[in-house]
Amino acid sequence: MSPVRSNAETAESYGIARSYGVNIDTFNAWQSLGKQMGLNGENFGDLFEEYRNKVSDFKKDPTKGAIAENFPLLGFKAGDMYGKSNEDQVSSIFERLLKLDNEQLAAGVRGLHLRR
């Protein structure tokens, strides 16, 4: 690969990472993980962006929506996410999903939480 092409791809990755509000290391991790699952970093970025939309909905009405319905299933209580960045919040959610014993429940919660 030519240095010019490599620099252009790096600049593009930085721009995409910035658009999702994460650093380049996080975006590159998404890229790496995504390749293992037939996805890419932008697919993970879309999930992250959808989470931010759910947070916005929750702030408007904390009694309705995917967060209000699913956070208790994951063992989160009021204030658990206070002060955490969106990136840290998403990381906490995935950590809890991975710890659920019931894979069907985990898939269901993940689907409800991150669906469009």
In short:
The protein has six helices and no strands. With 116 residues, the protein is mainly alpha-helical. It has one domain.
SSE layout:
Layout (H helix, E strand, L loop, with lengths): L2 H18 L3 H13 L4 H20 L5 H5 L15 H14 L3 H12 L2
Question: What does this protein structure show overall?
Answer:
The chain is mainly alpha-helical. It has one domain. The chain contains six helices and no strands. Helix 1 (about 5-20) crosses helix 2 and helix 2 crosses helix 3. The longest helix has 20 residues, at about 40-60. The chain is elongated and about 55 Å long. The model has no long low-confidence stretch (mean pLDDT about 80).
Which structural class matches the secondary elements?
Answer: mainly alpha
The separation of the N and C termini measures 37 Å
Mean pLDDT figure: 79
Number of strands: 0
Taking all Cα atoms into account, the compactness measure Rg is: 16 Å
- Unreliable runs, pLDDT <50, ≥5 residues? none
Roughly what fraction of the amino acids lie in strands? under 5%
Helix content: over 70%
- SSE order, one letter for each helix or strand: HHHHHH
| Major beta sheet summary | none
Number of structural units classed as domains: 1
Which word captures the global form?
A: elongated
Number of separate helices: 6
